[in-house]
Amino acid sequence: MRRPAELARAEWGALLAAVRTALAARKWRAVPLALGAVCLTSLLQYVQNQDWGYRFVQNIGAVRAEDPLWLALLRTPQSLFVPALDLPVWGALAQILLVFGIAEICVGRVRTLVVGYAATLAGTLYARVGVALGPGHPLGLPASDAQVVDTGPSAAVVGLAVYVCWRYRACFTAGLVVALMVVEVVVKDNLAGREHLAAIALVIVVCGVAELRQPSSGGRRSSVPPDRESGPPDRESVPPDRESGPPDRESGPPSDGPGPGSGSGRPPMRS
């Protein structure tokens, strides 16, 4: 039976090594996207709690299912950084810093933004479909949810967490995130929980398609992403012209013939 330390190393070893290496080399410069997202979220949280700023933030980043589709699509990118008013903002900031920072290091800034936006958009579009289906459908939502503001950054956080876990083969952690979101819906069935599941569903589909497109290696997949599996070049493979070592110093320069006194070991005879 494997010890807990071995299980933890198999689950998070490659992930932690990538994060530790990047932070040791560049410190906070390794996560500019995460730091920028935290600062922007903090700023929008402050502004929306002011009498003069609430309407402004709602107009640029609040997405509801009752909004026209073009307006919802226009507001969705900003909605990633508008925290919910009924939840403590420090929780949202901690999630963004941790998950966005790890994703930025492990999969890159562009992919972090794309996956985060796609997960948020999946929740936004599901809300419209769920309201249209109605409460009688298993995937439907009550009509009152059309006036509820979307989840904000939490759908992006959940989607990125599952995506990064898939990339680094942290299967238990990914399953744990999915299980927690299912429990959230069972305990408190609301729009936010349903949108989290929609975001996870989209990420699972994306991961499944990417998995099918990768050529089969015939063996067990590595826990390191494909673009990080190739290590440094093999030092044992030396070019042929370098395999031979330096000339043997014991062998002196070639002689044109036998020298004096060669062969008998005696000094030459003098007449």
Question: What attributes characterize this protein structure?
Answer:
single chain; 271 residues; mainly alpha; globular; disordered C terminus
Q: Can you describe this structure?
A:
The chain is an all-alpha fold. It is 60% helix and 0% strand. It has helices at 4-26, 32-48, 54-61, 69-79, 89-107, 109-133, 153-167, 171-187, 191-213, 240-243. Helix 7 (153-167) runs antiparallel to helix 8. The chain is globular.
Distance between the termini: 92 Å
Topology, number of strands: 0
Round the Cα radius of gyration to an integer and report it.
Answer: 31 Å
Structural class: mainly alpha
Coarse morphology: globular
Count of runs of 4 or more consecutive helical residues: 10
Low-confidence stretches: 217-224, 226-271
Layout of strands and helices, then pairs:
Layout: H1 4-26, H2 32-48, H3 54-61, H4 69-79, H5 89-107, H6 109-133, H7 153-167, H8 171-187, H9 191-213, H10 240-243
